[in-house]
Amino acid sequence: MDQKIICLAAEKTADRLQEFLQTLEEDDLANLLQNQAVKGKAAGALLRAIFKGSPCSVEAGALRRLKIYTCCIQLVESGDLHKEVASEIIGLLMLEAHNFPGPLLVELANEFVGAIKEGSLMNGKSLELLPIILTALATKKENLAYGKGELNGEECKKQLINALCSGRWNQQYVIQLTSMFRDVPLTAEEMEFVMEKVLRMFSKLNLQEIPPLVYQLLVLSSKGSRKKVLEGIISFFSELDKQHNEEQSGDELLDLVTVPSGELRHVEGTIILHIVFAIKLDCELGRELLKHLKAGQQGDLSNNICPFSIALLLSVTRIQRFEEQVFDLLKTLIVKSFKDLQLLQGSKFLQNLVPHRSSVSAMILEVVKNSVHSWDHVTQGLVELGFILMDLYGPKKIPDGKTIETSSSLSRMPNQQACKLGANILLETFKIHEIIRQEILEQVLNRVVTRASSPISHFLDLLSNIVMYAPLVLQSCSSKVTETFDYLSFLPLQTVQGLLKAVQPLLKVSMSMRDSLIIVLRKAMFASQLDARKSAVAGFLLLLKNFKVLGSLSSSQCSQSIGVSQVHVDVHSRYNSVANETFCLEIMDSLRRCIGQQADVRLMLYEGFYDVLRRNSQLANSIMQTLLSQLKQFYEPQSDVLPPLKLEACILTQGDQISLQEPLDYLLCCIQHCLAWYKSRVMPLQQEEEEEEEGFYQDLDDMLESITNRMIKSELEDFELDKSADFSQSTGVGIKNSICAFLVMGVCEVLIEYNFSISNFSKNKFEEVLSLFMCYKKLSDILNEKAGKGKTKAANKTNDSFLSLKFVSDLLTALFRDSTQSHEESLSVLRSSNEFMRYAVSVALQKVQQLKETGHVSGPDGQNPEKIFQNLCDITRVLLWRYTSIPTSVEESGKKEKGKSISLLCLEGLQKIFSAVQQFYQPRIHQFLGALDVTDKEGEEVEVSVNERAAFQIRQFQRSLLNLLSSQEEDFNSKEALLLVTVLSNLSKLLEPSSPQFVQMLSWTSKICKEYSREDASFCKGLMNLLFSLHVLYKSPVILLRDLSQDIHGHLGDIDQDVEVEKTNHFAMVNLRTAAPTVCLLVLSQAEKVLEEVDWLITRLKGQVSQEIVSEEASSQATLPNHPIEKAIIMQLGTLLTFFHELVQTALPSGSCVDTLLKDLCKMYTILTALVRYYLQVCQSSGGIPKNMEKLVKLSGSHLTPLCYSFISYVQNKKSKSLTYTGEKKEKSAAVATAMARVLRETKPIPNLIFAIEQYEKFLIHLSKKSKVNLMQHMKLSTSRDFKIKGNILDMVLREDEEEDEEGTASQHEEENKEPAKKKRKNK
User: Fold this and answer.
1) CB neighbours of 221 closer than 8 A, spacing ≥ 6?
2) HSE value, Cβ hemisphere, 13 Å, CA-based, for 560
3) Looking only at Cα atoms, what is the longest distance across the chain?
4) In the predicted model, what is the mean pLDDT of residues 657-677?
5) What is the tens place of the pLDDT at every residue in 892-925?
6) Strand pairing partners for 652?
7) Residue 24 pLDDT exceeds 70
8) What pLDDT digit, counting tens, does each position of 1201-1226 carry?
9) What span, in angstroms and rounded, lies between the C-alpha atoms of 452 and 444?
10) 3-state secondary structure 565-618
11) Statement: residue 570 has pLDDT above 70
């Protein structure tokens, strides 16, 4: 039969074929076709013949075709056919599909939809036909019966797609169905249907099936809905990551359901690659991605900024046209995230409203962690981002040359954190990816070398961490490090020290690197630049410290841990400690040559030798010999010659230039410390060994003893430094005398420490100490007196004290806390001198100040944080005891001495120490406070929280402040009060804001402000600042501001002099003296902060609304979750309105108060406008505006706007009065000009304010129209711009002017004789 059909088909006309086919049963035809196809015979030819004999123009033919189509589709799906046969059949069906009449196309399509919904498709091969059917259907213009109604082809297609997308899809066909839609012409609306359906299917698929589906989606997105696709993919993986993290941190039992971490990351990596590839081909997709993520940063970050989207962004940076935009977006995101965090931390009001946001920095570090799963496309972006952050937000250089690195002032916090994040990204990436290590190291070293002039401590820290992490791995990069060494002599000293300290573990591993460094250092030693020589000394000292000689003591007290814990091999096996010894002695030889160089180079040596000795005790002989021979050059050996030191030899005169040649004080200081250490650590161990070596220790001791005795006998005249000596800096003699004086003072200090440390509490020694101090004091007084007459008041402040921090701590403990009976008599010698005790405390102060400014102190162990911390604890304990047990009032009533009392100095020291400990030892605060608690017994192991310890200290200082305030006004010591407030502020930062101790502190401060009145502006400012800083962490300070503004209004009076203002006495601290600039400026700056918070909240709300408006369904409920935030914003603004209402009526003095008030009013109106604009945005969906918003607008119209205009008039009248006043004086035309300039400057904010008010009113009109509520009924439209010339007043003013002019000319004639003299004086 099949042959017959094919033969008939070969005829020219199809009539016979048609007749034959009509005679056959449809089932027979279907069976025939099926048999042929299964056998793999010429099914294609048979099919063509059947189609030829079944023209669509005849109804029977069309129906036959339909039957054949259905039969073929089932055949193809059955899976019984060969691939080629199936493809041929599908191909023929595709070719013929467009001939079908519309109704049959609908029927065919419905069959497909039904099969897909029921899941009866076997292999989905026939799905290739569906796009052709739908496309053919779309071209039919006539109406077709569909369902119960009639629709044209296009609408039918839409309904079919709708039906298809609303049914169930079998998960195995999702990818095929998605790729099928590529070939269907879709409208935007249909595209939405399809996209939503496919994205909903994500969660039902296996993880491995998602990448091919995403690929199909991206291809499909070229037709539209790009944003939808990106949004869907990002939010799906964001959710998946969240679940994954929760499961990982949750129960172990969940392991059964979890996706393995590696698999998830690999899938994410593949998808990111797909998206980046799609963006390369379709830039529009890239733009949509950036737009989508930019929108996300306005509202709540967690919606679309997640580790996945950040990794995606970083991969996109490989596309050149998007690189800059992406990095800009990431920078903005990071800094914004840190700023938001800072804002939230500083305000309880915001913390209550906004849940804690996920931090972008944590997400980025998670991306680094995830990138281990072969995300090579992300790592390059990560490295670039790390360097961009470090370059942009690293410490900056400020004009006076210091760098602001340690300052943790709040404004710098986000930038510092961003820089730190950059360093963390680079360090973590370095740890994970070997392939990129070399590049990171090179980039860091390049920056260290090329940016010598700007601060690079952050890069040195990073380098140090990298080297510490893997010194052995870095051996492969040694050439780069060696290359860097060549630049050492051109780099600043600080950079050289930092660099060598960072790469020092490498020197222990790589001998070649060490050798090349030594060559470079030797060259540098004889360079012409002083800095290069200093660098050489620094380098050699570092090497000596870190290369142990056999037999050296264990350096458990090392100042820097060497950090080669990762070097598991015995580094010195090949290059043993004997070789180390030769190496070290060779370096010592080199250093001896340096002793003949400039004072700066010698000074570095003397400062470094002590550390070397402590770390490498075998070098003691060599070092001590060197120091001894150096001292002998300046020492007078005959015991009766005064003075004992040749000061002349220490000074170098070259023509007119006089400079210090030998820092003798530093030399002695070095000898004294080395000797003390040697005696306590080395000599006890050497008693059994040979004695002859100890000769020169005895020599040194004898020399120091002799110098002490003769220094005490020497008069100032012996040094030629009596009162009549010249100390001016302009003459050679003066400079020489100053240098000598400083040397003598330094030597005295060194000897004080030496004699105290060897005294063993002997009375004679203490008398010697006091005599030495008297010599120091006389010189110091002379220098101060001379400096006081000259201009350089701070001449003697520049020299740091030579006493070591450890000694200061021991000395203070002995002076104030030592109650041992046997020490009593000898200590009374020192205690009898108030001057000496004051000196001891002031040196402690100087040391702490140095620590705050530079992060370390001068003297031995000054770079060792651990030792400094211990000494600080001891010093604080003593100062605290001294201050609390002998209050200032008691001490001062006894003796009236010039200078600060000891108690006051102790308090100042405490204040400095508390802030220094918070700056440098934040993690160890608990230990610090524990050390202060003298009542603690060692045996008791009771854990006391930081909160309780801090509260205990706070109570002591509160008592002191109360005692001060209860004294008479004339006895009030404002310096002490201010210091106490600063100490309380420092300590209150340690309290947990949710703790009862914090609440107690707040109510105490509030009570003090309410009950005590002092006319001291700086004290008032300190106390008010403390009150506000506590209050904002408890709740919003708006009520406080309102009360204070009423007080200010009451004290300063009203702008209308006829109005009597009722005095409200909320806070006694506000009085006539403090109200004007002090409190007024403080409350305005606080109001500004509140306005900033409100502004932040409004921006956040706007961001959320713009995200939600996209989907209409969401926006109908969008306003509900925002309700508490909106309410809070309106409450804040309402209270601030009453605050400004008071201040605007206050007769403020001209100047900063008026300026700031005008600027803040301007801000207030800008933020009111922002709120109105927010309601314009929300108005349509929420149906109107809340009642309290209407009240706020009414309040602003009745209580603020009219008063603003009268305040502006008040300010302008005041200015014109001051102008006429200066005009009347007619002293100088310059005076009038400066007054005019000041008026212009001060009235500048006025037009801005008027503009802000008018903008506010403009948007209110818009909102009134939109919300159908008349908000303008309470607004009195401004009249400031309307004006009318009043003739009678004008005549009066003109007449006054004429009279003034006549008076002016008369007075000018009188003054004409004096005028030229004045001018001359000005020209001088």
Assistant:
1) 195, 228, 229, 278, 282, 285
2) 19
3) 148
4) 88
5) 655 555 667 888 999 999 999 999 999 889 889 9
6) 659
7) no
8) 889 988 988 888 877 776 665 555 54
9) 13
10) CCCCCCHHHCCCHHHHHHHHHHHHHHHHHHCCCCHHHHHHHHHHHHHHHHHCHH
11) no
Separation CA 973–CA 961 (nearest Å): 10
Is residue 612 packed enough to be buried (19+ CB in 10 Å), middle (13-18) or exposed (0-12)? buried
Q: Where does 178-233 show beta strands of DSSP type E?
A: none
Q: pLDDT: is 898 or 1154 the higher one?
A: 1154
- What single-letter DSSP state applies at residue 549? P
CB count, 10 Å around CB of 366? Answer: 17
Q: Which two tokens stand for residue 200?
A: 């909903």
Cβ partners under 8 Å of residue 1058, min gap 6: none
Instruction: Give the pair of three-digit tokens for residue 1170.
Output: 């922002």
Closest-CA residue to 355 (of 1175, 1107, 1106, 1104): 1104
Tokens representing 244 are 């994954």
Instruction: Please name which of 570, 500, 502 lies closest in space to residue 542, comparing C-alpha atoms.
Output: 500
Amino acid, single-letter form, for residue 921: Y
Q: Name the amino acid, one letter, at 365.
A: L
Name residue 903's amino acid: S
- Which pLDDT score, from 0 to 100, does residue 573 have? 40
- State whether the Cα torsion 1012-1018-1024-1026 is positive or negative: negative
Provide the 10 A C-beta neighbour count for residue 62. 18
Q: Which of 808, 831, 668, 828 is nearest to 751 (CA)?
A: 668
CA contacts within 13 A on the Cβ side of 494 = 14
pLDDT mean over 447-454: 84
* Tokens at 463, concatenated: 């380098």
Q: What one-letter code names the amino acid at 700? A: L
Write down the pLDDT at residue 607: 86
632 Cα distance to chain centroid = 54
Q: Is 941 exposed, middle or buried (0-12, 13-18, 19+ CB in 10 A)?
A: exposed
What is the pLDDT at residue 1171?
Answer: 94
Question: Is the CB of residue 44 less than 8 Å from the CB of residue 89?
Answer: yes
Q: Where do the DSSP E strands lie in 470-541?
A: none
d(CA 560, CA 566): 16
- Report whether 133 contacts 159 (CB < 8 A): no
Which residue from 881, 888, 929 is spatially nearest to 905, judged by alpha carbons? 888
Question: Which residue spans within 22-92 are E strands per DSSP?
Answer: none
Write down the H helix ranges in 921-995.
925-932, 946-966, 974-988
Six token digits for residue 1313:
């004789």
pLDDT at 1122: 64
- pLDDT category of residue 1320 using cuts at 50, 70 and 90: very low
User: 1009-1018: string of b/e by CB count within 10 Å (b at 16+)?
Assistant: bbebbbebee
The backbone region for 563, taken as left when phi is positive above 0, alpha when psi lies in -120 to 50, beta otherwise, is: left
DSSP summary character for residue 651: E
Could you give the 3-state DSSP secondary structure of residue 659?
strand
pLDDT exceeds cutoff 60 at 489: yes
Peptide bond into 643 cis (omega under 30): yes
pLDDT at 794: 40
Task: Please name every residue paired with 653 in a beta bridge, in sequence order, or none if there are none.
Answer: 658
- Tell me the C-alpha distance between 489 and 598, whole Å: 17
Between vectors from CA 536 to CA 535 and to CA 541, what angle results, nearest 5°? 100
Contacts of 815 by beta carbon, 8 Å cutoff, 6+ apart: 827, 830, 831, 837, 840
CA distances from 85 to 3, 36, 37, 80, 355 (A): 18, 10, 7, 10, 63
> Which token pair is 678?
């040697």
Contacts of 1036 (CB under 8 A, 6+ apart): 347, 348, 349, 1090, 1093, 1132
CA–CA gap between residue 600 and residue 645 (Å, rounded): 20
pTM for the full predicted model? 0.83
Distance CA 129, CA 139 (A): 16
